[in-house]
Specification:
The structure is a single chain. With about 400 residues, the protein is an alpha+beta fold. The chain has 3 domains: about 190 residues, no CATH class; about 100 residues, no CATH class; about 35 residues, no CATH class. About 35% of the residues lie in helices and about 15% in strands. The chain has 10 helices and 13 strands. It has a 4-stranded antiparallel beta sheet with strand order 4-3-9-8. A 3-stranded antiparallel beta sheet has the order 1-2-13, covered by helices on one side. Helix 2 crosses helix 8 and helix 5 packs antiparallel against helix 7. The radius of gyration is 29 Å and the shape is flat.
């Protein structure tokens, strides 16, 4: 018999939680004891900035993290401590599903993710905390990670060292702690993983820039680019600069770029604006569409699961087909990578068999016919099922009506 939960929270009787430590465990470090993440050690900041400015790129990251973390978890109800941990995985009241969603998000965005595990010498409890991957660097010994709140302004006295799993170290509060590290493999990158979409960074930048171009056109009321000829004799550079500023306030704009030309005029005032015809709108749209398609491919993801084709009509059949492909090519393998060290941690610290702990997957649209029985639906979704269980022999239509 299995039990399931998603985001519910309950108090766990007899459990002890420890808060995540940031500054009271490990030794002081210096900037020669860690491997730089990127040439300037700030690659995570750059990746996060791109994700916050590219619409399609961010949508795929969000959706992949949601699909990978699933709709909850299932476990054997014969292990109540396991169920309690799934329901409330740390002292902050997070469920394991919430924790996994943050870890999956970091893994998709950065190609790396980190979880802090906290226990004691008796194994009386286990707490798991997500660590923001952008705050972590790998130590030179490859056996520890270093935590710092701002790597752009690194101060050795504020850095914290924690061991990598499976090694635990005792901290000042008596707890044993370690960090589980998730890293995507990439040849020639020994110390940090690389996100799947690394080949699509330029495409993400193109989508961002084409969006900004359209926003500027809108802000400028679709003003044409052109050349502004200004007649008149000026007395020195200061007056010329003032005339240019006045004309710029009146005629300037982006992307309605205006080039100002100052010239002397012997007769009358021949100042005028010469528009430059713009025939590149179609090229910009094609560039945007091509970059969008490249982003999806770089993520090893699917258009129907990225919300890109809804304008052409909602096709539940296509969504389900692409979901099945994503489930078998991306989602399940990522879930296995996330869950394996967590199961091992549970078994090592609490002495509980965690083989039954699994993520629940549901398709984004419902395709199961109402005349299908519960056990048949569970079998179709790859879950454990029992044909003899009375609760699983009712029809889905009965559940819908109830």
């Amino acid at each position: 018999m299995q039990n399931t939960t998603s985001k519910s929270r309950v108090a766990v009787t007899g459990s002890t939680y420890a808060a995540p430590l940031f500054g009271v465990c490990g030794s002081v470090v210096n900037d020669t004891r860690f491997w730089r993440w990127g040439s300037d050690n700030l690659l995570p900041d750059a990746l996060a900035l791109v994700a916050r400015n590219s619409t399609v790129h961010r949508r795929i990251i969000n959706d992949k993290a949601d699909y990978i973390s699933g709709k909850g978890l299932t476990w054997d109800e014969n292990f109540p401590r396991l169920g309690a941990l799934v329901t409330e995985v740390n002292g902050s009241g997070e469920s394991m599903r919430q924790l996994l969603n943050k870890v999956a998000f970091d893994k998709v965005l950065f190609g790396n993710a980190f979880v802090e595990a906290v226990t004691d010498v008796n194994g009386s409890f286990l707490s798991l905390y997500h660590i923001d991957a952008s705050k972590v660097r790998l130590a030179r010994d490859s056996q520890h990670v270093l935590l710092h709140h701002d790597w752009g302004n690194f101060t050795p006295s504020d850095a914290v060292s924690l061991p990598l799993y499976p090694n635990f170290e005792q901290c000042e509060d008596g707890t044993l702690r370690c960090v589980v590290r998730y890293a995507g493999y990439e040849p020639q990158f020994e110390h940090y993983g690389v996100p799947d979409y690394i080949a699509g960074l330029n495409a993400s930048a193109i989508v961002y820039k084409t969006d900004r171009w359209n926003i500027c056109r809108l802000d400028n009321s679709f003003q044409l680019s052109g050349i502004m000829l200004l007649d008149g004799v000026v007395d020195g550079e200061q007056q010329a600069a003032e005339i240019t500023r006045l004309a710029e306030r009146k005629f300037g704009g982006t992307p309605g770029q205006v080039m100002f030309v100052m010239r002397d005029s012997s007769e009358g005032d021949n100042s005028r604006f010469i528009p430059l015809s713009n025939t590149s709108d179609g090229d910009w749209r094609e560039l945007h569409d091509q970059a969008t398609a490249d982003i999806v491919v770089a993520h090893s993801w699917f258009r129907a699961l990225s919300g890109l084709d809804f304008s052409a009509g909602f096709s539940s059949e296509r969504i389900l087909q692409e979901y099945e492909l994503a489930l078998n090519t991306v989602i399940i393998s990522e879930q296995a990578e996330l869950m394996e060290p967590i199961r091992m941690l549970i078994e090592r610290t609490l002495g509980i068999n965690a083989d039954s702990l699994a993520i629940i997957n549901h398709p984004p649209t419902q395709s199961r016919p109402e005349y299908m029985k519960v056990w048949e639906a569970r079998r179709a979704e790859g879950l454990d099922y029992d044909e003899t269980d009375p609760a699983q022999n009712i029809f889905l239509a009965q559940l819908t009506k109830s």
